[in-house]
């Protein structure tokens, strides 16, 4: 005959890991910095000092991890080794906790433009993958393991930058979607070198990775999902103009999966350089998806991060607030 007390004790032991997973935690997100003025060394030193100050504040906050949402330089800075790789590696190395990075358009997509030095963007992307995504783990002085699309998806072994991890019952995933219409070749005008081959392959991989992330959240019974990318894929909704074809399929994939998931989803991105939190995603019937919160981080001259406090057991698990010195804040604009 079963001993009721022993049964209850066993059930309590089995429940302990789930309770531990549900503990509140904090993480940080930031992007689009430092932006230096070409040829102005004093300005660049100033912006790097401001960034170093922010990183000090981020370290002091003791987050579980931080995420950099792309654009390690201004669009009109040259895509040289000194700027794209050496300068970036220096401040990436200042983090005393895990740092996850997803690329932006300024450090590879736009490098073909004359103002950025006329480089081959696909070649620079390959070098970014070698420099910052060589191992299945985060950056930072303390690292954490990451599950990479390249390691588990035989059809997409190139995309080491698409990563996933779980923390206290919440699934996180980076998706390599960038500004400049996601490197989609324009219908008219100059064509970015290699974009005709690069864009469709990465676009398909991104949609597969979004589906895989939500599948993992369903499989594990995650309480919430966080997706992170660089592109402001909602720019046209806000401003009424701008390219959208390069992100349309990914947006649709996220909307469909989020509607089916029906639990809280947080979208984090940069690109437009001001703090914003809203609910811009709609389902196939044009209804607002109330379970999908979008947060855009500051950037450029507004060198601040965003602090996200997560309570996995709450109906609205994400509490959002800027972190840093608001000495040059920028309000919502349409350039």
TrEMBL record:
Signal peptide interval: 1-22
Entries under InterPro entries matching the protein: Metallo-depent_PP-like
Top-rank lineage group of the source organism: Bacteria
Keywords assigned: Signal
Protein name (database record): Calcineurin-like phosphoesterase domain-containing protein
Species whose genome carries this gene: Plastoroseomonas arctica
Origin organism lineage: Bacteria, Pseudomonadati, Pseudomonadota, Alphaproteobacteria, Acetobacterales
